[in-house]
Design a protein that fits this description.
- Helix content is 42%, strand content 22%.
- It is α/β, with parallel strands linked by helices and 297 residues long.
- The chain folds into three domains: 80 residues, Arc Repressor Mutant, subunit A (Orthogonal Bundle), CATH 1.10.10; 104 residues, 3-Layer(aba) Sandwich (D-Maltodextrin-Binding Protein, domain 2); 78 residues, Periplasmic binding protein-like II (D-Maltodextrin-Binding Protein, domain 2).
- The strands form four sheets. A five-stranded mixed beta sheet has the order 4-3-5-12-6.
- The longest helix is centred in the first third of the chain and has 23 residues.
- It holds the Pfam family HTH_1.
Length: 297
C-alpha cells in the first residue's frame, strides 16, 4: 500500500482545523473539489474514514482523534526539519487551540500567551471563549484552562494556580440586600450554588443576573448591586470596592487540561506545561494579593 505524502496531511489537517471543506479550501488557496479529492485519496490509501459529515460540518469521531493528532505531529515535525535546516533548533511550533472562560480570555490569558509567543515564535494560538464545557473529543480545542473543583472524566490535566473570589460593589452604600445573581454555566458552580442558597435564605432582592463575570462586573460598576467576582477582576476595577462577604469562598483550582485521548501527545503536553508555568507566575493576582495600583512586570 502506497502511503500518503505530506500534501495529503495538509489537506486533512486544514479540514480538521476549519471543520469544513470550504474553509480548508480558503486556507490552502485551492478549490472545493481539490480538497474533497485529496481527503478522499488520503482516506482510501489508509482504509479509514476520518470525518463524519453532518449539518454542522466535518467532525472528527473520538476514535480518530489520535490519528489526527499524529498528523499534526507530522506537521510540526516537517516545520521542525525546515527550522533545523535554517537555524539548527526546533522549538515548540504550530497552532494550539486554547479554550477558557470569557473572563480568563479577556483578563488573564492574553499576556500569558503573549509571553509564550515571545519564547516560541513558531507557536501560535487560537483563543476560544466560552463559559460552557466544550467537547474536546471533537477537537474543538487542544487545551482548556478551567477553574473547577474537579475535572470531568474526559479531561486530563494539572492544577496550575488557585483562584480566589471576592465580594464587591460600586460603593459600600449599596444596600446589603441588593445582589446580582449568577446564571448559566457559572451559576451551576459550587460557590455560585452556595451563594444563591444563602441569599435566598436572606430573602435578598436580585436586581439583575448574568451568565458572565464580565457582564456582572459591568452591572456592579453601574451600581446595580453587590456581586461575587474572581478577585483578579474585582480588584482590578477602579470603580468597585470590597464589601462584606456573604459566604466563605475558598479558592478554586485552575486546571490546564486536554482530552484524555490526547493528553500524552508530546506537543500538547509541552504546551500545557508552558501555559501552566506561565499561569503559576500569576498567583499573586489570581489570589487577590496584588493591589489595584501595583505594577506588574
Amino acid at each position: 500500500m502506497k502511503g500518503p505524502n505530506w500534501d495529503d496531511f495538509r489537506f486533512v489537517l486544514a479540514v480538521a482545523r476549519s471543520g469544513s471543506v470550504s474553509g480548508a479550501a480558503r486556507e490552502l488557496g485551492v478549490n472545493h473539489a481539490t480538497v474533497l479529492r485529496r481527503v478522499a485519496a488520503f482516506e482510501d490509501r489508509l482504509g479509514v474514514e476520518l470525518f463524519v459529515k453532518s449539518v454542522r460540518g466535518y467532525e472528527i469521531p473520538p476514535e480518530k482523534l489520535r490519528l489526527i493528532e499524529a498528523a499534526r505531529e507530522v506537521e510540526a515535525a516537517v516545520g521542525a526539519v525546515e527550522r533545523l535546516a535554517r537555524a539548527g533548533e526546533a522549538p515548540l511550533s504550530g497552532v494550539i487551540r486554547v479554550t477558557s472562560t470569557d473572563s480568563f480570555c479577556h483578563a488573564v490569558l492574553p499576556p500569558v500567551l503573549a509571553r509564550l509567543s515571545t519564547q516560541a515564535p513558531a507557536l501560535s494560538f487560537e483563543l476560544l471563549s466560552t463559559n460552557a464545557h466544550l467537547d474536546l473529543a471533537r477537537l474543538h480545542a487542544d487545551v482548556t484552562v478551567r477553574p473547577t473543583l474537579k475535572l470531568p472524566e474526559d479531561l486530563h490535566g494539572e492544577v496550575a494556580v488557585q483562584m480566589a473570589f471576592g465580594f464587591y460593589a460600586a460603593s459600600v452604600e449599596v444596600p446589603a440586600d441588593r445582589w446580582l445573581g449568577l446564571t448559566g454555566p457559572i451559576g451551576r458552580s459550587y460557590l455560585a450554588t452556595r451563594l444563591r442558597d444563602e441569599l435566598e435564605r436572606r430573602r435578598v432582592t436580585f436586581t439583575a443576573a448574568a451568565d458572565s463575570f464580565l457582564s456582572l462586573l459591568s452591572l456592579a460598576e453601574a451600581g446595580m448591586g453587590r456581586v461575587m467576582l474572581p478577585a483578579f477582576l474585582g480588584n482590578a476595577s477602579p470603580r468597585l470596592v470590597p464589601v462584606a462577604p456573604a459566604i466563605e469562598a475558598a479558592p478554586v483550582p485552575v486546571y490546564v487540561a486536554s482530552h484524555v485521548d490526547l493528553a500524552d501527545a508530546p506537543r500538547l503536553r509541552q504546551a500545557r506545561a508552558r501555559i501552566g508555568a506561565a499561569l503559576a507566575r500569576e498567583e499573586a493576582r489570581m489570589m487577590g494579593r496584588l493591589p489595584v495600583t501595583a505594577k506588574r512586570a
